[in-house]
């Protein structure tokens, strides 16, 4: 570019002393030629067809590494002492950096949002569970444990602390900070029904206090799954003592101990039916829900399916509800008519009496097809007056004449509990009194000998 100007002008001088105008030249380096393909740059030696950083939609013939673009429009080789800075296209790097930052911000936002949603959901769950626990509760309130405390006591629910599993969920052994050993029950993940059963069990156990019922210590509702914390009963279940003792090298239960376990269980159920306010129907009486402590005394457990009888229902002879329970123990009349009464528990207890007498399982597919169900099998046996043929040899062999008579008496009591018509079944209070009477006879016989 050419300009006419006063070269070396000193503007402080008068005009008449200004020099004559001259010609001043200013050079502007031209842009590299435009290209579309690499072949277009063959006319410009030492160049390549690259994207123009000033205009991303265009390509130009830029000098290769070690060369620079001069004012005459050629790619000259860099020489020592010559300014030859390699210009690189920084647009892709800038774009990658910007996108990375945006992705990091978006990821952080999503993580924080998820945390807030989870926290809000947990708060709502805790509130909902607390409302369920407080609904229609006239008894004592359960102690609320923190999730941190329970996780610590069970070593974060470690597998080695797992005591057992069932349809409802899992039970873990735990040790509180004060050294108290506890059993911690939780529903299985994703099992909404199990969650409701755990909450229901807390409500039930807050209403009761009896030596024949497992004692509730408290609950925890702030974790994803609600937890039930109750006393640790160390000697397993009646089911294990009757059917698995050989595997665990436990001595079989004596006849007197079986009678005591039966009477303690019956007494606990009688308390639920007659003394608890409002009355409670257990709905899942079975040998695996009868726990034995260090003295082999019985404690009824697992009230997840239990039902409080509201005041409005207490005047009726039954409650209409869906049939729930365990195969082999379920009252057939309750199953058919969906009418729950205290006599439904009596029927289930009758099955437990048969287990105590025979050490046979309520349902056993290793038996002949027609004998899989213990009740069906035993009714056929008793109709043929062959009860003594199926009594557990451990309690029959070496038994005195009086003890054999008491075995028959308990067999008849079991038969009465299992009557198909519920109105013909005895109450749990009557069953408990009958067993207590039989225990008196056996104990008296033992003291004489």
UniProtKB/TrEMBL annotation:
Pfam families in the cross-refs: PK_Tyr_Ser-Thr
Primary localization: membrane
Molecular-function annotations in GO: ATP binding; protein serine/threonine kinase activity
Segments traversing the membrane: 91-111
Subcellular localization, as worded in the UniProt entry: Membrane
InterPro entries registered for this protein in UniProt: Kinase-like_dom_sf (IPR011009), Prot_kinase_dom (IPR000719), Protein_kinase_ATP_BS (IPR017441), Ser-Thr/Tyr_kinase_cat_dom (IPR001245), Ser/Thr_kinase_AS (IPR008271)
UniProt KW keywords: ATP-binding, Glycoprotein, Kinase, Membrane, Nucleotide-binding, Serine/threonine-protein kinase, Signal, Transferase, Transmembrane, Transmembrane helix
GO biological process: cell surface receptor signaling pathway
A single Gene Ontology CC term: plasma membrane
Topology relative to the membrane: Single-pass membrane protein
Binding-site residues, ATP: 185
PROSITE patterns on file: PROTEIN_KINASE_ATP, PROTEIN_KINASE_DOM, PROTEIN_KINASE_ST
Family of this protein: Belongs to the protein kinase superfamily.
Stated name of the protein: Kinase
Species in which this protein is naturally found: Solanum tuberosum (Potato)
């Amino acid at each position: 570019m050419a300009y006419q100007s006063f070269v070396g002008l000193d503007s402080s001088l008068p005009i008449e002393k200004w020099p004559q105008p001259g010609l001043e030249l200013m050079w502007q380096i031209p842009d590299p030629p435009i290209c579309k393909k690499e072949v277009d740059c063959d006319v410009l030696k030492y160049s390549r067809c690259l994207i123009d950083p000033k205009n991303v939609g265009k390509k130009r013939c830029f000098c290769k590494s070690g060369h620079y673009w001069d004012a005459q429009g050629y790619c000259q080789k860099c020489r020592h002492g010559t300014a030859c800075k390699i210009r690189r296209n920084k647009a892709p790097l800038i774009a990658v950096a910007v996108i990375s930052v945006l992705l990091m911000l978006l990821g952080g936002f999503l993580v924080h949002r998820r945390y807030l949603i989870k926290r809000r959901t947990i708060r709502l769950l805790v509130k909902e569970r607390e409302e369920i626990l407080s609904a229609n509760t006239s008894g004592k309130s359960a102690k609320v444990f923190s999730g941190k405390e329970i996780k610590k006591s069970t070593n974060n629910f470690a597998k080695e602390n797992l005591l057992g599993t069932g349809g409802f969920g899992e039970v873990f052994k735990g040790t509180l900070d004060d050294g108290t050993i506890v059993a911690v029950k939780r529903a299985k993940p994703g099992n909404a029904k199990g969650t409701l059963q755990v909450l229901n069990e807390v409500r039930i156990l807050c209403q009761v206090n009896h030596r024949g019922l497992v004692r509730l210590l408290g609950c925890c509702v702030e974790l994803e799954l609600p937890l039930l914390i109750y006393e640790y009963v160390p000697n397993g279940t009646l089911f294990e003592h009757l059917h698995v003792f050989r595997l665990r090298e436990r001595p079989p239960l004596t006849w007197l101990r079986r009678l005591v376990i039966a009477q303690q269980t019956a007494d606990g159920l009688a308390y639920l039916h007659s003394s608890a306010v409002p009355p409670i129907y257990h709905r899942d009486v079975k040998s695996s829900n009868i726990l034995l402590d260090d003295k082999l005394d019985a404690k009824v457990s697992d009230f997840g399916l239990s039902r409080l009888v509201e005041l409005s229902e207490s005047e009726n002879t039954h409650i209409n509800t869906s049939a729930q329970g365990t195969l082999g123990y379920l009252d057939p009349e309750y199953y058919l008519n969906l009418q729950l009464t205290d006599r439904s528990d009596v029927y289930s207890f009758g099955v437990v009496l048969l287990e105590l007498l025979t050490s046979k399982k309520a349902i056993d597919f290793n038996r002949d097809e027609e004998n899989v169900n213990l009740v069906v099998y035993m009714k056929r046996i008793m109709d043929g007056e062959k009860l003594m043929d199926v009594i557990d040899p451990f309690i029959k062999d070496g038994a005195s004449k009086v003890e054999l008579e008491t075995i028959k008496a308990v067999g008849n009591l079991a038969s009465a509990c299992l009557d198909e018509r519920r109105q013909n079944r005895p109450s749990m209070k009557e069953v408990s009194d009958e067993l207590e009477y039989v225990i008196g006879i056996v104990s008296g016989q033992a003291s004489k000998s």
